[in-house]
Amino acid sequence: MPEILAPIVVFCYNRPQHLRQTFEALQRNPMAAQSTLIVFSDGAKNAQDAPLVEQVRAVIAEKKGFQNIQVHASSVNKGLARSVIEGVSEVVTTYGKVIVLEDDMLCTSDFLDYMNAALTTYQDRKDIFSVTGYTPPFALPDGYTEEVYLAPRASSWGWGTWQDRWQQADWQVSNFAQIKSSDQQIANLNRGGNDLWPMLVKQQRGIIDSWAIRWTFAQAQHHAWGLYPVRSKIQNIGTDGSGTNFTFSTGAYGQELSEGMPRLTPNLQPNPAVIEAFRKYYQLPLKVRIKNLLKYGI
Questions:
Q1: 278, 269, 273, 271: which is closest to 127 by C-alpha?
Q2: CA 41/CA 57 separation, integer angstroms
Q3: Which of 76, 107, 203, 232 is the most buried (most CB within 10 A)?
Q4: Is a pLDDT exceeding 60 seen at residue 240?
Q5: Cα–Cα distance measured from residue 216 to residue 152, given in angstroms and rounded to the nearest whole number
Q6: Residues 228, 135: contact at Cβ < 8 Å?
């Protein structure tokens, strides 16, 4: 019996040109024609955004090239975090697994092959909570010969997961009071980068609204990993100042796309040297650490 392909979920808001490019890249994947595409289009936050939301929905309406397309067009503005949490929860309950993109992700033409293969290969690895097509541009240690690696952080850029892992997330972070008094648990979260604890604190204080930090926190709480390819299959085109999280333009997260199916090692183990190099990539600059201390007491 052939493996059922994971549905592709795309979240979008008010960037029609970005969304068009995301769809075009997806359609270059041969597996697109065999895949279900589910689009969650958020409602306008204000009158200024309403025409752009309508343009986004026009882009969605003209899409072809997938086995079937489902569109969820919200009449109200939910915001990205609520949209992702509710949307992914709904889809994984129905399909058991999911591939997720936002409206500013360009993928390679074999992205869907890789993601479906990874979701199948690691579906019984309960210590792996998510798989992603993205990798940050850091230098892997000399002598690392695997074509994928494990990191103590979940990526929100072109990723996938399974129902039994997603449902373990505590979106309220109900044990936050206990966590913030535990240096060990804070250090465990920060193994994926010392930007993570400040993000979680800001999330709990209502300063930011991020589903991704709560998803990474769930991974840390379960001592689980995210699976990344050595060469990236995702490029973020939303770091131009147009996005929810990147309201300023930056090229710091740029990554060249790489075609070719990575070798997926079923019994892949975490590599301490890779984890340390990965952690250093996400090291906060001194000025940001000082700002967090002075402004937020973190």
A1: 269
A2: 7
A3: 107
A4: no
A5: 8
A6: yes
Is the distance from CB of 6 to CB of 34 less than 8 angstroms?
A: no
Distance CA 157, CA 165 (A): 18
With tokens 């996400």, the residue in question is: 282
Q: Cβ–Cβ contacts within 10 Å for residue 298, how many?
A: 16
pLDDT band at 256 (very low <50, low <70, confident <90, very high): confident
Q: Distance between CA atoms of 191 and 22, rounded to whole angstroms? A: 31
The pLDDT tens digits for 138-196 are 999 999 999 999 999 999 999 999 999 999 999 999 999 999 999 999 999 999 999 99
Q: What's the rounded Cα separation, in Å, for the pair 37 and 107?
A: 15
Residues paired with residue 101 on neighbouring β-strands, in sequence order: 10
- Overall pTM surpassing 0.85 (yes/no): yes
Domains and CATH numbers, the chain: 8-296 (3.90.550.10)
All residues at 6 or more sequence positions from 17 whose CB lies less than 8 Å from its CB, including other chains: none
- pLDDT one-digit tens code per residue, 219-239: 999 999 999 999 999 999 986
